[in-house]
């Protein structure tokens, strides 16, 4: 998960790329049935990755999983430490993904039908508490509603992700402070409590996500995105800060693979290219864990059952290496 506003320092990026350890999980090019799949920090990616792993296990592949952050996975993909990433989000990872494509360290394996949004979000019922939403100009009129200590400054809950929200707050003169949580699980805990009490909450969220299926809500409508918003301080509402606009919307999710996957694992490559996730598929994958509280393994099996017709279309083809 996670952006045109996710800026990774060049030095850090290259150090990560060059120094990521691979000894423990390096794939053996001579072993045509050993697949390693990365698990990132959000539920839909982990559930669907395990589901794809189960498909491969039925084809007699040995499958293992490697927990790694979305920003640290690129060196692993370049080296073949992990073999494919099924859920590359356009906003949160485009910077690294495009960089690696240009360096020919990873290759693209197509897009999903799913369209993404990553931005400020609130449950539907909040609009009755704060008339004027989703227009961003309503936020300051209602900022006290979103406060956690009865001040005039509201709280915007986010996770350990940098979308340059500080610039957005300063640029649009929003009376909000950012409260960063350690992970998405803490974010959902706060959301569930607020929803139970029908209390105003403003938080980072993304779509497709489990909330699409279980807690209807809306994204705040900030000034329209333009590439100049990121690079030209004089552009837009603020003349002192960049990033004073919404995140890009309606971007397709991508698939990325190790450059040697097609040669070493041609049938796996064909499968990954055929997989096509919809918003509903991703939302349900997340909901099975974050709402229904199934384990990732159980959720993966339930997900495969729910979308069995699609899974059959993806996996029902003849390939030499299928055993």
Quick tags:
323 residues, alpha/beta, D-Maltodextrin-Binding Protein, domain 2, 2 domains, seven-stranded mixed β-sheet, two-stranded parallel sheet
Largest sheet: 7 strands, mixed
Mean pLDDT: 88
Under the CATH scheme, which architecture of the largest domain would be assigned?
3-Layer(aba) Sandwich
CATH superfamily of the largest domain: Periplasmic binding protein-like II
User: How many helices does DSSP assign?
Assistant: 14
- Count of strand segments: 10
Helix/sheet category: alpha/beta
Report the helical percentage: 25-40%
Please provide a written account of the structure:
- With 323 residues, the protein is an alpha/beta fold.
- It folds into two domains: 10-116 and 252-315, Periplasmic binding protein-like II (D-Maltodextrin-Binding Protein, domain 2); 117-231, Glycine betaine-binding periplasmic protein, domain 2 (D-Maltodextrin-Binding Protein, domain 2).
- It is 38% helix and 20% strand.
- The protein contains 14 helices and ten strands.
- It has helices at residues 10-19, 43-58, 73-79, 90-102, 126-129, 165-171, 184-197, 210-214, 228-231, 261-264, 266-274, 279-290, 296-306, 308-315, and strands spanning 34-39, 62-67, 84-88, 107-123, 131-134, 154-158, 176-180, 202-207, 217-219, 251-257.
- The strands form two sheets. Strands 3, 4, 6, 7, 8, 9 and 10 form a seven-stranded mixed beta sheet that branches. It has a two-stranded parallel sheet with strand order 1-2.
- Helix 2 packs across helix 12, helix 2 (43-58) crosses helix 13 and helix 12 packs antiparallel against helix 13 (296-306).
- It is globular.
- Mean pLDDT is 88; it is low at 2-30.
């Amino acid at each position: 998960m996670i952006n045109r506003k996710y800026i990774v320092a060049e030095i850090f990026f290259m150090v990560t790329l060059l120094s990521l350890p691979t000894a423990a999980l390096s794939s053996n090019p001579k072993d045509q049935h050993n697949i390693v799949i990365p698990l990132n920090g959000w539920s839909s990616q982990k559930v669907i990755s395990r589901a794809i792993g189960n498909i491969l296990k039925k084809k007699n592949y040995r499958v293992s999983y490697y927990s790694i952050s979305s920003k640290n996975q690129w060196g692993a993909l370049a080296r073949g430490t992990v073999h494919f990433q099924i859920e590359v989000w356009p906003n949160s990872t485009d910077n690294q993904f495009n960089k690696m494509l240009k360096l020919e360290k990873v290759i693209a394996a197509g897009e999903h039908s799913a369209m993404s949004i990553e931005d400020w979000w609130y449950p539907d019922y909040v609009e009755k508490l704060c008339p004027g939403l989703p227009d961003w100009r309503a936020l300051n009129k209602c900022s006290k509603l979103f406060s956690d200590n009865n001040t005039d400054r509201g709280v915007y809950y986010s996770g350990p992700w940098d979308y340059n929200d500080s610039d957005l707050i300063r640029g649009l003169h929003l009376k909000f402070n950012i409260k960063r949580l350690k992970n998405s699980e803490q974010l959902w805990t706060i959301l569930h409590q607020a929803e139970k009490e029908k209390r105003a909450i403003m938080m980072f969220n993304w779509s497709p996500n489990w909330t699409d299926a279980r807690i209807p809500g809306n994204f705040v409508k900030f000034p329209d995105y333009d590439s100049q918003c990121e690079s030209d301080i004089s552009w837009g509402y603020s003349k002192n800060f960049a990033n004073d606009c919404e995140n890009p919307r309606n971007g397709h999710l991508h698939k990325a693979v190790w450059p040697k996957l097609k040669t070493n694992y041609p049938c796996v490559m064909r499968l990954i290219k055929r997989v096509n996730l919809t918003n509903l598929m991703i939302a349900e994958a997340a909901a099975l864990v974050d709402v229904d509280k199934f384990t990732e393994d159980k959720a993966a099996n339930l997900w495969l059952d729910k979308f069995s017709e699609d899974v059959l279309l993806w996996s029902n083809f003849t390939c030499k290496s299928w055993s």
